[in-house]
Design brief:
single chain, about 300 residues, alpha+beta, Rossmann fold, Tumour Suppressor Smad4, 2 domains, six-stranded antiparallel β-sheet, about 20% helix, about 40% strand
């Protein structure tokens, strides 16, 4: 019996450019005897008969495999809803950089045929749970694939906050905020903030201050088995924003703590057998290219 009999499809929201790929993908899967479920958000784009429109919750519950059409942002949104159900994801890139959606639209038929035959690479990425605590009152947890970011709501003022690892004090900070990143997110906002690229196989997190007041406040790499606690200090009335993957926002007040720990869920990614992580980095970050090559790539 084939491993992936019911396939769910999630497309980039409100983007008509994914329609040709979406409908061609549905036709291809139906011809191979798969049951095809399409996320309700793509209803207006679906022209192919035979595919069934379902809610995201039903798609997560019933799918053996999910295919995401779009960019990394689309995959982040889909991944947070699919990870608790342990649904593996294959990404078809119709975005820009595409660190996680690595199948080109022109190549999806060959890649998908190989996946349906069991010829693929399965990768498990660690995720984060973030909660906001004041005394015994807790909001969350909120799931994050890339990162949890604490940043100031007032653009012209710095935040004051403390960082802790379990009960061990790390430091006091004055900065625009801080990024707590997974290895997956190390090539996203954390990289722009000066953090290192962390191989996705590592059980590690990075703490990257955003525009710190002092040059000695540097990025820190820690194990993923402990809880990071960020306590917002400063004057009464200070407000900050806790953001998961740049897509889910929660307000944080002075005296509240953001607690971040490794989630019990993982993100399962399916890649073609040709997938190589460092080849991806070379292509996306233009490693080893000349300045002339860089200008041409832009």
């Amino acid at each position: 019996m084939p491993e992936f009999q019911t396939v769910g499809i999630i497309g980039k929201l409100n983007d008509a450019r994914v329609a040709p790929t979406l409908n061609a993908l549905c036709r291809h899967l139906l011809r191979r005897g798969c049951e095809v479920l399409v996320d309700r958000s793509a209803r207006a784009l679906l022209k192919q008969a035979g595919a069934r429109i379902v809610s995201r919750a039903e798609l997560a519950r019933a799918s053996d495999l999910a295919i995401v059409i779009g960019g990394d942002g689309t995959l982040l949104n889909a991944g947070r809803s699919l990870a608790p159900a342990a649904v593996p994801i294959l990404g078809v890139n119709q975005g820009r950089l595409g660190f996680m959606v690595d199948v080109a639209p022109a190549d999806f038929r060959a890649a998908l045929d190989q996946v349906l035959k069991g010829r693929y690479v399965r990768e498990r990425r660690l995720l984060l749970d973030a909660a906001i605590r004041r005394g015994r009152a807790v909001r969350g947890p909120f799931l994050a694939i890339n990162d949890v970011v604490l940043r100031n709501q007032a653009a012209v003022r710095m935040l004051e906050f403390e960082t802790w690892l379990d009960d061990e004090f790390i430091s006091r900070h004055r900065a625009d905020g801080i990024i707590v990143s997974t290895p997956t997110g190390s090539t996203a906002y954390a990289l722009s903030g000066g953090g290192p690229v962390v191989h996705p196989a590592l059980d590690a997190l990075t703490l990257v201050p955003i525009c710190p007041h002092t040059f000695s406040d540097r990025p820190l790499v820690i194990g993923s088995d402990r809880t990071v606690r960020i306590v917002l200090t400063g004057a009464r009335g200070t407000l900050a924003m806790c953001t998961c993957d740049g897509q889910h926002n929660e307000t944080v007040k002075a005296g509240e703590a953001v607690e971040i720990r490794r989630s019990p869920h993982v993100l399962e990614l399916i890649h073609p057998r040709s997938y190589r992580y460092f080849n991806l980095l070379r292509n996306k970050l233009h490693w080893g290219s000349s300045h002339r090559d860089d200008r041409a790539a832009r």
